[in-house]
């Protein structure tokens, strides 16, 4: 049986790497897309090291250096994927830029950068991959790592998250709007788009390097890996246009034990909506 193919952006480390390895273990060939071809103490891992890990799991992998701000490199990413594998079944838009400052402290150049990386690049990659997904008998899935549009004191997202992060939240909510637009435009056409957002902070080098909390405040990326795997199992004609929260989605599927996702055993991380003081600039 031919392996399905997933493009994962920001896949050289952290959450992206975890998703890449999780799909690799489950018979997906992976296109590892990221800027990183060298590593450092604070940012270990490269596209080549992750591709090698996937191959050691028994799946194939293609490492493509990609700066998602550059339209030509996104186009080249899709072209190389098709040249190598001849199909695209899933796109995981995981790459992201972080800028948490007040509006008055956000130069327009920073606003442009985070919107280029987050909302624009994810839109562009999805746009280029959809025509190839349309040719697949089983269609395709597009996943945005972005928050729900629901505004109010609601689980993982509330209006307090805008304070000190307005430009960032605009860029992330744009990703969710792209998913919803795709879901509506391709309803019943075998292509699904959904957004996925964590209930709690997730261990990543961004959190570590920006000193955002401690391990007892985080869950392992495994919870997002399990969500992605389960999303990709769904019928794209029946499961699309959802704004998913990781914990709520897994509860819907019957999961009851979330202690396995704790970074510190016995320490249940707080919900995003309950720890906004920790995130203030």
Short description:
The chain is of the alpha/beta class and 281 residues long. The chain has helices spanning 14-25, 47-56, 71-85, 108-133, 166-185, 205-209, 222-232, 246-252, 276-279; strands at 4-9, 28-34, 61-65, 90-93, 140-145, 191-197, 243-245.
Describe the SSE topology.
Blueprint: E1 4-9, H1 14-25, E2 28-34, H2 47-56, E3 61-65, H3 71-85, E4 90-93, H4 108-133, E5 140-145, H5 166-185, E6 191-197, H6 205-209, H7 222-232, E7 243-245, H8 246-252, H9 276-279
Parallel strand pairs: 1-2, 1-4, 2-3, 4-5, 5-6, 6-7
Helix pairs in contact: 1-2, 1-7, 3-4, 4-5, 7-8
Structure in words:
The chain is 39% helix and 14% strand. It is α/β, with parallel strands linked by helices and 281 residues long. It starts with a strand and ends with a helix. The protein is globular. The protein has a single domain, classed as Rossmann fold, CATH 3.40.50.720. Helix 1 links the parallel strand 1 and strand 2 (28-34). The chain has a seven-stranded parallel β-sheet, sandwiched between helices. The protein is built from nine helices and seven strands, in the order E-H-E-H-E-H-E-H-E-H-E-H-H-E-H-H. This is Short chain dehydrogenase. It holds the Pfam family adh_short.
Question: How big is the Rg?
Answer: 18 Å
**Which H/E pattern describes the elements?**
EHEHEHEHEHEHHEHH
Quick one: CATH class? Alpha Beta
| Strand residue percentage | 5-15%
Taken together, the total number of domains comes to 1
CATH topology: Rossmann fold
CATH superfamily: NAD(P)-binding Rossmann-like Domain
Question: Helix share of residues?
Answer: 25-40%
Strand order of the largest sheet: 3-2-1-4-5-6-7
As residue ranges, the low-confidence spans are: none
Q: How many strands, which pairing sense, and closed or not: the largest β-sheet?
A: 7 strands, parallel
Oligomeric category:
single chain
What's the total number of strands?
7
Q: Average pLDDT value?
A: 92
The number of helical elements comes to 9
> What structural class do the secondary elements suggest?
alpha/beta
Distance between the termini: 50 Å
CATH architectural arrangement: 3-Layer(aba) Sandwich
- State the shape: globular
């Amino acid at each position: 049986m031919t392996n399905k193919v997933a493009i994962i952006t920001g896949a050289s480390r952290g959450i992206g790497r975890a998703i890449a390895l999780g799909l690799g273990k489950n018979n997906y060939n992976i296109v590892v897309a990221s800027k990183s071809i060298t590593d450092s103490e604070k940012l270990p891992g490269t596209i080549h090291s992750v591709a090698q890990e996937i191959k050691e799991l028994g799946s194939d992998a293609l490492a493509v250096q990609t700066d998602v701000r550059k339209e030509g490199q996104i186009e080249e990413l899709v072209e190389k994927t098709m040249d190598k594998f001849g199909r695209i079944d899933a796109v995981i838009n995981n790459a992201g830029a972080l800028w948490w400052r007040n509006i008055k402290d956000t130069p327009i150049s920073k606003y442009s950068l985070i919107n280029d990386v987050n909302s624009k690049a994810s839109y562009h990659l999805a746009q280029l991959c959809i025509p190839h997904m349309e040719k697949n008998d089983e269609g395709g899935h597009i996943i945005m790592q972005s928050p729900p549009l629901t505004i109010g004191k609601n689980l993982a997202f509330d209006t307090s998250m805008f304070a000190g992060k307005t430009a960032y939240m605009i860029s992330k909510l744009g990703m969710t709007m792209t998913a919803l637009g795709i879901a509506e435009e391709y309803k019943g056409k075998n292509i699904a788009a959904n957004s996925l957002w964590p209930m709690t902070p997730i261990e990543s080098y961004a959190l570590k390097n920006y000193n955002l909390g401690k391990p007892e405040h985080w869950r392992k990326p495994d919870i997002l890996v399990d969500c992605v795997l389960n999303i990709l199992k769904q019928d794209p004609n029946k499961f699309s246009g959802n704004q998913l929260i990781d914990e709520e989605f897994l509860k819907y599927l019957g999961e009851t034990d979330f202690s396995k996702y704790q970074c510190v055993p016995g320490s249940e991380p707080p919900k995003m909506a309950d720890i906004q003081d920790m995130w203030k600039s």
